[in-house]
Amino acid sequence: MFRVIYMYVCPICKKRLRKLDNVWHCQNGHSFDIARKGYVNLLTTKGRNPKNAGDNAEMVNARTDFLDRNYYLPLAKKTAEVMGGLLENVKQPYIIDSGCGEGFYTVNYAKALPKAKFYGIDISKAAVAHCMTRIHCGNITNCEFAVASSFQLPFIDKFADLIVCTFAPVSNDEYARVLKDGGKLVVVSPSPRHLFELKEVLYEKPYENKPNVYGLNKFDESEEMIFEYPVVLESQEDILNLFTMTPYYYKTSAEAVEKLKKVNRLELTCGFSIRTFTKKRGF
Ligand SMILES: [Zn+2]
């Protein structure tokens, strides 16, 4: 269905990679094996900062257990709808899911937009390995995955029609480089009220999330949609899994965690900001 296109670049010398059997090669002799699960690791030692290595296996598992309960499925569907609207006039769009995590969103985006080809990247190898499990189990054929950094995207210039970034770091320069002229960017982040009720359990003075400032000066912002809906978590397991996948996991006292462990049911606001940008001319 898709013409064969070699879209990856060598993370060391930036030359285009070509695939031969199960290995991606560049003309300068750098090579990258395709893992048994089917992804390629294109993270250089420079990008492999241990302090910023992405989610570990425990966090990936907590995230997967929680996401598989589909509390965030309405968000995935709404975001796919926004992307579909932006790509109305593109026959076979190429979409990068930047910071794709363990693949819940990528796979749901790919199901909703079957004519698009998705390239998911994440800095966490454990997360990317799980993406492959998701596409094999779900029989999804329009996704490929690589271990890579959003700040050193392993793609050729002006390749993608759209980049989606769901709760992940945003890179002004790299996004502008790999998007086609007039390419679109969709950034999903928590809204001010997202999970406020969870914070009420954890903190004496819970605060609303501040709006994100991205510094995307190579883009024009066209729209922001606030998408909110209520959910009820009916088990301690779901509540703790959700907690483990939030940033609060790192900054909450042991005492507060004990308090949370006594909660069996939690009514929550899920709130998201879905922002749309267009790449400016001249970049
Ligand atoms: Zn190379």
Q: What's the quick description here?
A:
Residues 95-211 form the Methyltransferase domain. The chain is of the alpha/beta class and 283 residues long. It contains eight helices and eleven strands.
Write out key terms for the chains shown.
single chain; 283 residues; alpha/beta; Rossmann fold; 8-stranded mixed beta sheet; 3-stranded antiparallel beta sheet; 8 helices; binds zinc ion
What is the helix tally?
8
Rg of Cα set: 19 Å
- Total number of domains: 1
Strand arrangement across the biggest beta sheet: 4-7-6-5-8-9-11-10
> Unreliable runs, pLDDT <50, ≥5 residues?
none
CATH class: Alpha Beta
Question: Distance between the terminal alpha carbons, to the nearest Å?
Answer: 30 Å
Largest sheet: 8 strands, mixed
**What percent of residues are in strands?**
25-35%
Oligomer designation: single chain
Q: What percent of residues adopt helix (DSSP H or I)?
A: 25-40%
**Secondary structure tally: strands:** 11
Domain 23S rRNA (guanine(745)-N(1))-methyltransferase N-terminal: 8-44
Domain Methyltransferase: 95-211
Protein name: Methyltransferase domain-containing protein
InterPro entries: 23S_rRNA_MeTrnsfrase_RlmA (IPR052939), Methyltranfer_dom (IPR025714), RlmA_N (IPR048647), rRNA_m1G-MeTrfase_A_prd (IPR016718), SAM-dependent_MTases_sf (IPR029063)
Structural notes for this entry:
This is Methyltransferase domain-containing protein. Pfam families: Methyltransf_31, Zn_ribbon_RlmA. With about 280 residues, the chain is of the alpha/beta class. It has one domain (about 20-280): Rossmann fold (3-Layer(aba) Sandwich), CATH 3.40.50. The chain has eight helices and eleven strands. It has helices at about 55-65, 75-85, 105-110, 125-140, 170-180, 195-200, 235-245, 255-260; strands spanning about 20, 25, 30-35, 40, 95-100, 115-120, 145, 160-165, 180-190, 220-235, 265-280. The strands form two sheets. The chain has an eight-stranded mixed sheet with strand order 4-7-6-5-8-9-11-10, sandwiched between helices. It has a three-stranded antiparallel sheet with strand order 1-2-3, with no helix packed on it. β1 (about 20) and β2 (about 25) form a beta hairpin. The radius of gyration is 19 Å and the shape is globular. The two termini are about 30 Å apart. The model has no long low-confidence stretch (mean pLDDT about 90). Bound molecules: zinc ion. The site of zinc ion (ZN) has 7 residues, from loops.
